[in-house]
From TrEMBL:
Example GO molecular function: hydrolase activity
One matching Pfam family: Amidohydro_2
Alphabetized SUPFAM superfamilies for the sequence: Metallo-dependent hydrolases (SSF51556)
One GO CC term on file: cytoplasm
Protein name: Amidohydrolase
GO BP annotation list: secondary metabolic process
UniProt source species: Candidatus Pullichristensenella stercorigallinarum
Domain Amidohydrolase-related: residue ranges: 3-261
Keyword Lipid biosynthesis: no
The entry's keywords: Lyase
Length: 261
């Protein structure tokens, strides 16, 4: 069984534009449009059974619309999507918004500090993360970017120190483009998990395994970052890593099942 712990989805009318925007931000060519139907088709080709699905709110006013869309997709594909909610650090009445997120059945929250332009450990972010932790939700966070200083490993470490009951998933092995710094700074921290999305393409197999084992297979989840990457190609990259079969199964589905159900 395979669970993809990191996919972005968008309504059909904006999917192509949104995917193009991601490609421009990261200076890569994206070959998929970010629509739900194409995502499901590509994940089926890769043998992926379930996907953690989300989208990022770049303004507070987008939060409700995105969450309605994510839950609609969840209903359309029962048993396939693990829904993560959008949130923004400037969301009004955040405590009640989070109560609604929990009541709706979301399994976590997704944030992208680099897109949303907030530092992980600034006061408004700490307030938000404290509320997320109190709501009992894990939070999937884009982490790392050598070009900016919103989500790099030292800020994640400070966040975890400030809110020790927060369960955080650091995307991209804890730090996109700063993978070794993430390992040195974040491996072994309580309540901290990572996914493999947007990491395997950049790392040699032995290096990727070194990073994975530093965090421990029980804290690592397989992820593709769709539509940035093709799921079947990410499965091929992951299967090429010199891991044990037990490690591979844990990362493909065990960790996600334990954390998200």
């Amino acid at each position: 069984m395979k669970i993809d712990a990191h996919v972005h989805i968008y309504p059909d009318k904006i999917a192509a534009k949104a995917a193009k925007g991601i490609g421009k931000f990261y200076d890569i060519t994206i070959h998929h449009d970010g629509s739900i139907t194409q995502m499901i088709a590509e994940e089926d080709k890769a043998g992926v059974s379930r996907m953690v699905a989300h989208s990022v709110a770049t303004t507070p006013t987008q939060v409700a619309h995105i969450n309605e869309f994510i839950m609609g997709a969840h209903a359309e594909y029962p048993g396939r999507l693990i829904p993560f909610a959008a949130l923004h650090p400037d969301t009004p009445d955040m405590e009640n918004v989070l109560k609604g997120i929990v009541a709706a059945g979301f399994k976590g929250v997704k944030l992208h500090p680099d897109f949303q332009e907030f530092q992980l450990d600034e006061p408004r972010a700490l307030r938000m993360f404290s509320m997320i932790a109190d709501a009992g939700l894990p939070v999937l966070i884009h982490t790392g970017d050598y070009r900016y200083d919103y989500s790099n490993p030292p800020r994640m470490a400070h966040l975890l120190d400030e809110i020790p009951n927060l369960v955080a998933i650091g995307a991209h092995l804890g730090g996109w483009s700063v993978y070794d710094e993430a390992r040195k700074t974040l491996a072994g921290r309580r309540n901290f998990y990572v996914d493999t999305s947007s990491a395997l393409y950049a790392l040699k197999p032995d290096h990727a395994v070194e990073l994975i084992r530093a965090f421990g297979a029980g804290r690592v989840m397989f992820g593709t970052d769709y539509p940035m990457w093709t799921p079947a190609e990410e499965v091929e990259r992951f299967d090429a890593l010199p891991l044990t079969e037990a490690e591979r199964e844990q990362i493909y589905h065990g960790t996600a099942e334990e954390l998200l159900g």
